[in-house]
Write a structure and sequence with these properties.
- By secondary structure, this protein is of the alpha+beta class.
- It contains two helices and five strands; from the N terminus they run H-E-E-H-E-E-E.
- The chain has helices at 8-18, 48-51, and strands at 28-32, 36-39, 56-59, 64-76, 79-88.
- It has a three-stranded antiparallel β-sheet with strand order 1-4-5. Strands 2-3 form a two-stranded antiparallel sheet.
- The longest helix has 11 residues, at 8-18.
- InterPro entries: Imm21.
Length: 91
């Protein structure tokens, strides 16, 4: 684990190393019509794109059903990162 997070790059490097050991919560199934926007729930979704254009991630998904799960990963003594995993139900 990282003892101190000095940059976003260092944080992401630490998370990648911990993904295999992550304790994923129960999956839910999510049917989407196409692309979706992922954002931190601290920002209101109705104004996000206008007022916080850099604080979201456009995910170009094909229409279909996905398995979604979440894990909270400790990357240091005072740092945790929430990870959302999307897996296609298509074989």
């Amino acid at each position: 684990m990282l003892s101190q997070v000095r940059s976003e790059e260092a944080l992401l490097d630490g998370v990648e190393a911990l993904l295999d050991a992550a304790e994923w919560e129960t999956e839910v199934h999510w049917t989407v019509p196409g692309p979706v926007v992922l954002f931190d729930s601290v920002w209101p979704g109705t104004t996000l794109l206008d007022q916080q254009p850099e604080n979201h991630l456009l995910i170009d998904l094909a229409p279909g059903t996905f398995r979604v799960s979440f894990a909270s990963i400790a990357t240091g003594p005072e740092t945790r990162v929430g990870i959302v995993r999307l897996l296609s139900d298509k074989p």
